[in-house]
Amino acid sequence: MAISLRSSAFYHSGMGAHFSEAGLRFLRSLKRHNDRDWFNERKMTYEQELKEPLLALIDEINEAMLRFAPEHVRSPAKTMMRIYRDIRFSKDKRPYKTHVSAWWARAGLEKTSGGGFYLEVSSDQVQIAAGVFLPERAQLLAIRNHIVVHHARLRAELHARRLQAAGLLPVAGNPLTRPPKGFLEPAAAMDLLQRRDWAVLGTFPTSMALTSGFSREVSRRFERAAPLVTLLNEPLVPRSKSSSFAPLPLRF
Questions:
Q1: Pick from 110, 60, 107: which is nearest to 81 by CA?
Q2: 233-243 per-position pLDDT tens digit
Q3: Does residue 213 fall inside a structural domain?
Q4: Interatomic CA distance for residues 178 and 28, integer angstroms
């Protein structure tokens, strides 16, 4: 069950959680002043105008997801992604992301790269996505084995009219230039097998994030993408609560 944040200032008098112009201004300024001193001096603004609204928004979306994707409901604190960048192995040493975001992983796949739902808000745009992005090797093999059998289902889900009507379109997929090792057929599935992402993505104006109906807009699109996420997670879900992830055997 989601942790309620309805005492928040961003959820009162029937008004849904949303962001403010002040929050977007903070993100615009962060692009120009991406350093710790600047951020720390304005951390209260970040907490009040970005972190608190995002947690309240996640709480509202969680309540909606109990109906169509209950396995993805986690506490807002665990769903929200850190604004701090991982710079340990990066040449880009800027410490902060210039957006706020959330990832709804499936229960049992929280520490992996299984299928889930994603929301990102920046000063330039809102992005709503669902699917699998760059899974780790074992999961990648399991998904490809699954596609061999279910490629028609996957293709239908990626191009479903209900998704297109909601502005969610298939991502390019980071495709390989040749068939992946061990997968030479079926030919009808090869474009799907060559992918390393299987997802849909929509880009929307930031004005969406400023409205009291923001959580409804996000939830509606997540619901339309839920069958795609379920399909992609079918080969990844742990066999039992006591067992760890085990991929399907390779097909040669």
A1: 110
A2: 999 997 644 33
A3: yes
A4: 41
Q: How far apart are CA 39 and CA 51, in angstroms?
A: 14
Write the pLDDT tens digit of every residue in 172-228.
989 999 999 999 999 999 999 999 999 999 999 999 999 999 999 999 999 999 999
CA 207 to chain centre: 20
Closest CA to 136 of 98, 158, 109, 162: 109
Closest CA to 100 of 85, 83, 87, 86: 83
Which helix (H) or strand (E) element contains residue 204?
strand 197-204
Q: How many domains does the chain have?
A: 1
pLDDT digits (tens, 9 = 90+) for 123-169: 999 999 999 999 999 999 999 999 999 999 999 999 999 999 999 99
Between 12-16, 101-105, 143-147, 167-171, the lowest mean confidence (pLDDT) is in 12-16
CA dist., res. 192 & res. 185, Å (int): 11
Question: Is residue 1, in this structure, part of any structural domain at all?
Answer: no
Question: Sheet of 126-133: strands edge to edge?
Answer: 99-104, 116-122, 126-133, 197-204, 169-170
CA distances from 33 to 39, 58, 75 (A): 8, 27, 31
Contact 135, 114 (CB under 8 A): yes
pTM over 0.85: yes
CATH of the domain at 97: 3.30.930
User: What are the two backbone dihedrals, phi and then psi, of residue 131, each rounded to the nearest 5 degrees?
Assistant: 140, -155
Residue 100, beta-bridge partner list: 121
First to last CA, the chain: 43
List the structure tokens of 72.
């993805």
Q: Which amino acid is at 214?
A: F
Residue 75 lies in a domain: yes
